[in-house]
UniProtKB/TrEMBL annotation:
Function text: Catalyzes the stereospecific oxidation of squalene to (S)-2,3-epoxysqualene, and is considered to be a rate-limiting enzyme in steroid biosynthesis.
Pfam families, alphabetized: NAD_binding_8, SE
GO cellular component, one term: membrane
Name used for this protein in its record: Squalene monooxygenase
Recorded superkingdom: Eukaryota
Amino acid sequence: MAEVAAVGQLGGAATAATLLAALFLAVLFRHQRRRRQRGAPVEGIPAPVDRCAVADGEGIAALDGPTDVIIVGAGVAGSALAYTLGKDGRRVHVIERDLTEPDRIVGELLQPGGYLKLVELGLQDCVDEIDAQRVLGYALFKDGKNTKLSYPLEKFHSDVAGRSFHNGRFIQRMREKAASLPNVQLEQGTVTSLLEENGTVKGVQYKNKSGEELKAHAPLTIVCDGCFSNLRRALCSPKVESPSCFVGLVLENCELPHRNHGHVILANPSPILFYPISSTEVRCLVDVPGQKVPSIASGEMANYLKTVVAPQIPPEIYDSFVAAIDKGSIRTMPNRSMAAAPHPTPGALLMGDAFNMRHPLTGGGMTVALSDIVVLRNLLKPLRNLHDASSLCKYLESFYTLRKPVASTINTLAGALYKVFSASPDKARDEMRQACFDYLSLGGVCSNGPIALLSGLNPRPLSLVAHFFAVAIFGVGRLMLPLPSPKRMWIGARLISGACGIIFPIIKAEGVRQMFFPATVPAYYRAPPEAEF
């Protein structure tokens, strides 16, 4: 009986101890939850990201463990890539020159195809809470006439559309999203060079916010430092062209003729764009051919805008345009194009505008960048680690082929449309321009096909070439009616010749084989190097 009593006492003590332990754990858990809600760090649990720190240009705490990927630049491409790789479990170190909110006049219109890529990456909420505007298509204006081209969105979810916004607000949302992951470190610093050993990139050298010279190492460095990249020369053969400059204005409290549409004015000498960037603001971009623009400081630019550009603006927005000029907030930005010409380098990769640019007329840059990120994510996903640089480099050569259908279609369309939409003293070029406007005005497949290409919803190179030459043949047909004459036949021949002269050099720069026959490129079939990893 004494033994039974002893066992009973032990059992009672054990039960009491268990209850006390459970009570202690419950109190501890509640305490930790309250600390997390207040933003205090809890042992073993990453502290929540201070979004204000990103907005104020502060860095986010260093990573635990060795870095898997260094990303140079936290613009649209860099931020989206950091979030994507971080979500896949990679430890990512992002080094950005300036973490404060950017203030740019381009990168403000995301096509529906780009929005779909944003959804695929889980970043669609980055267009929320920034007063982004839905864009449902374009309106085209020429010589007092206009036609509306709507995106073919019937087969998509109701949320799918283009989005236009302030570029800086969008980028800050992307940075915040990336920084919300505990395995992503955002740091403000300027990368000065790539660290190389025996032809393999091992990391970067950079100056942090305090001016200290530091080194960061990782098995893969991805350079996304934008159109003015100072690192691209080590990783590609850049042939940068600057066909024109954009002159940017913001029109306030202005109602565009076609709501929720971008507006393209086929003006002389080159196109003018209007699109909403908030509920009260409309961005105007005036294309000025060449690399030299009238001086803003001397008033020459304001005079040019009032005397040359304003008379070609639709009357509904004329007053708002002139008021924006008088306000004086005129800015310029060089338009650049650069075909992708990479040097496959072990340990490094180029992305975004540092890698590939096209004329921003069609607003396709962000769509290409986001599409590239989807391709790269899918290639890296099966790899357990990234330490065999030579095998990884050989495997990632497939990236350059797999990206081509989307990238080359958008790039070629941007370059070709800019040349077609620009005025020319050449009668054949002028006929091509008029034919393009009339062809798009026909509606049906004549407008749905090209606008599906432009929107990134149907990025097929063969469809692009078919529509481009359909415009040229349509133009020749117009010249032959009601009766052909030797002069009209000569202009028609020159129109076809001019069309070939516009599109074929762009296709050649993109790569005929990769663009139209990617399946014939050996790298297309490259399998993940599982044996080495």
